[in-house]
Predict the 3D structure of the following.
Amino acid sequence: MMDNLIKKKSIMIVEDDREISDLLKLHLKDHGYSVTKIFNGRKAMQLAQNQQHDMILLDIMLPDLNGLEICKELRRQRINTLILMLTSKSDEIDKVLGLEVGADDYITKPFSIRELISRIKALFRRMDAYNHPVGASERLDFGALKIDGMNHKVLLNGKRVELTPKEFSLLILLAKHPGRTYSRGNLLELVWGYQFSGYEHTVNSHINRLRNKIERDISNPEYIITTWGLGYRFNDQIDKETINDRIF
């Protein structure tokens, strides 16, 4: 019997090739997902802004508005729906850009339905783990900045900060180990799961967006510090009384 949680997941397919879209819908419905099909970029953007979906399968090459622009704008608006990009096998730069603008994963055409379903399930598992983290110890207090891993909440000066899953994962990983420097490759492997070179700029882009949300002055950050030539670390010189991962 298929898990009830999976049956409730909704996926929006944004693909202008109607045959591919029909095929994807057929297989996704067979796996218990509810599916919406959209064939152009602007309508996809409008629907993503006004209706809640659990995931968007987003082709890059679309009429009106391409997938990279859609992804970038949704993340700018802090819409954190899972996004799985569909790219052409030859367009390596699109994969890099897709991850940099906030996509959660990508799959290259042509792909097998089995691989696609596997990627979708992996993303949903990651999201479920992210929404229901284990252990109250992931509640960290750094004075003005408070991180509640149990409830996936970040407060800055008492106000909630909306982070994407990747931004939150980066923040809590760094904050749990103040003073420890992580290379871009380390962060890429630990947060994204990619173990090959060429995607390190994705980390830079997410760090910059994270800093824009939590730092008073991004040119002189208080929390996420650059270790020049190596990577990033969480500042271990913040108020010593609140640096010890105490529950708030």
Summary: Confidence is low (pLDDT under 50) at residues 1-6, 240-248. The two ends are 41 Å apart (CA to CA).
